[in-house]
Amino acid sequence: MSEEREIAALVHGRYLLEAPADPEGCPLVVGFHGYGENADVHLEQLRRLPGAARWVLCAVQALHPFYNRAGEVIASWMTREQREHAIQDNLGYVAGVVAEVKRELPVSERLAYLGFSQGAAMAYRAAAGSGHACQGVVVLGGDLPPELEPRDLSQFPPVLLGRGSSEEWYDAAKMEHDVELLRKKGVDIRPCVFQGGHEWTNEFRAAAGRFLEEVFRPAS
User: Fold this and answer.
1) Which of 24, 90, 124, 152 would bridge 106 by S-S if both were Cys, CB 3.0 to 4.6 A apart?
2) Residues with Cβ < 8 Å from 185, sequence gap 6 or more?
């Protein structure tokens, strides 16, 4: 007899947290790295956002680590195998991280999710299903996950969507598809095409900083 079976397993995740000396009332930015990166790399990018010194920064590392050729530990969010289970595992993981940060630090209710490359889908998913309402989503070089396409996103927060002009993986057609779909669903989607490729640039960092300052501004 030969058959495939599945079983739930408890694993431990890792996240990096950086806060001002007095974090009381500070907004929280939760970020997700790209494929083959780690939380350390992503935290460095979060630090470089204009305004980051006034926010609590949380870089979440994917649950599936592996080594690169240099022997560094990097990670991936998921593969096509057991994808649906991975989505739910990741959502539960993110929900737990945010809840723990909120228990430990006196942050404000202002929250934004940010994702690069493979982590872009995680930012969308976290905003839609982590159970922690957020005020904004920043995505760079990554597409809307397909399971969200049929969903009602009328209450989804504003989205800053970035793409480098010479980007090959997340090309112009993919960006146009996501922008059109989200607009039809009533989402405040703000495309940002900048000079560059599949990467962070100062131009996009400036746009992300302005966007986060706006969504973190208390409602009048």
Assistant:
1) 24
2) 152, 153, 154, 156
